[in-house]
Structure formats: C-alpha cells, structure tokens
Automatic annotation (TrEMBL):
Domain Fe/B12 periplasmic-binding: 57-308
SUPFAM superfamilies membership: Helical backbone' metal receptor
InterPro entries: ABC_Transporter_SBP, ABC_transptr_periplasmic_BD
Organism: Fervidicoccus fontis
PANTHER family from the UniProt entry: MOLYBDATE-BINDING PROTEIN MOLA, VITAMIN B12-BINDING PROTEIN
Superkingdom of source: Archaea
Transmembrane segments: none
Name of the protein in its database record: ABC transporter substrate-binding protein
Amino acid sequence: MKATFIVIALILIAVIASAAVLYINSGSKSGNVAGSNYRFLTDALGRNVTVPLNVSRVVVLDQGSAEIVYSVGAGNLIVGRLDSMNFPPSILNATALTYTNGVDLEQLASLHPDLIITYIRSQQELQSYETHNFTVIGVPWTNSIEDIYNTISLIGKALGRESRANYVISFLNETVNNITSMVSSSKERPRVLFIRTIGTSGIQVVTQGIENQLIELAGGVSLSNGLSKNTSTVFINYEDLVKMNPDIIILSYRVSQSVNDILNDSRLQDVNAVKNGYVFKASKEYTPTSPRFVLLLAYMAKCIHPNETSNLNISSLRIQLYKNIYGLSDSEISQIK
C-alpha cells in the first residue's frame, strides 16, 4: 500500500512538473512570437498598443498624421482617409471616408486596416474602434511644435521607420533654428493677431495653439495667446480687435475675406496694422498641424521681420520640404494649389 502511494505520488509529481514545463515553454513561445511579429508602444492617450510588425494597410483620419505617414516614407501604405484630405495629391487614391460623429465602421472594416492612426475626438469614438478590434494609434492634438515632433516619432515607431522619423525631426528643427536666428537680431517685437475665421459669430482667434508659438518664434508677440484657458479658440468682436490694436494682422487661409476687405473695412481704420498696410493672408499650403508648419513659420517671419528675413526664400524651402520630406516629384508638386 505504501509502495503504491509512493508510486502514485511520484507520478503526480512528474505530471505537475511536466505541466509546469509545458506552461513555461508555452509562455516563452508566446512571448517570442509576440516579440517577433509585433511592436509594443504607448500612444498619446497613454494606451499600450500592440502593432503588427509588418503593417501594409493604414487608415489615417486626420490630415496632420496623413502627412507624417508620407514624411516617414510610408504614404503608399495608406488605403483609407477622410474625404476632406487632399494632400499630398496621391492620397486621393485612397478610399475616402466621411466623418459624421465618427466614420462608417462597416466601410472602415472593409478596408481591412492593419493600423488606424487618428486624433481621438471622443471616448465613444475610441470604444467603437476597440469594439471592432481595430488596432488604433491615438496621436496628440497639435498645440505645439513638440506635439508634431512627438507624432512623427510615434508614427515612425509604429511603422518601423524610426531612423526616417529622426531625420524628419532633425530637418524641421534645423529649419526652425535657421529662421529664429534670422529674426533674433531685431530688438523689435511687433504685436501680432492671427485670425482663424471671420463669420457671423465674430472674429475667431487662437488662444491655445501652435499658431501662437510660431508667432513668438517668428519674432512677434501673439495678442490672442492665453485669452482663454478653457478653449483653443475664442470669438472677439470688432471693438475688441480695435482695442487690441495689433501692429500686424495675419489671416488664415480659412478667412473668406481678402486682405483688401480688411484694409477697407471702415470699422478697422484706427488699427495700426490697417493704417500701415500690415495685413497678410497665409496660403492654404501653410498647414500648422503637419511638417508644413515650417512654411507658416517662414511666412510669419517674413511678415513680421521683412528686413531680417530678406534672404529667406519660401519657394525654395517649399520645394526642399516637398522633395526631401514628402518625397514628391516635380509633377506632383506642380499639382499642388
């Protein structure tokens, strides 16, 4: 009886030991598979995301991220985009998705994306993606140049293009430094108002956004910076604008009014910028939430400090950016309007 008990005990020990070995080996194997087939990273929302090692189908749902995917040399992977996106020109080859309180999830699923890259607009939106088991990288809302650099780094890691991402960041940072060094010789810091839109609600200005940082780097003082701590933009009226009395007004491309409309507006004739003819309008190409922010910075610097930036050639910078960073051909560049 005792011998039988010992035999049974030995058998149980052997079974347990074998199970433990199998469990450990199974865990090691799983870890090795995960390590070889996936990347692990933390997105802008602080979520730990597992991304397939070989991403071949990408859907991008915000303009800045789409351009960054191109900048790291992966534009050919984009199979889906928002219908409002039109840059670079070849992105029009990707399937257009309409965003109305979210995208059509069935249409999104039909694209079989390995990865979705987007600014997450709401918790509900994120949950809808997770419910459908989409792999999603959340990128930061762009309030600063640093946010753009972080997004470039994040997308570079997600797509296995870290070296290229570092090159893009280095190029942009060098461009910023070159421009700021030009304007640093001036002791004057004109007071600048950047106007985002003008409509029935009033004059929309940016209170928390990259535009304010760009004005400061371009050698000016942003009059709308920090007007509100709760919202990124606020609406002011014409009386407010007159009281601000900016030395320079820069209109976003979103403003429907022309420079002449502002210069001839009877309500603004006492504003220094209007009296002196220092009203400018930025091109639609000068997108502040993508690598093209350097074009807006260069434009602002030339508006604010024309003498100090006389050698700054925006056309040359534009070609260099589109060729070296976006990888566009002369033919593709000629299509940009």
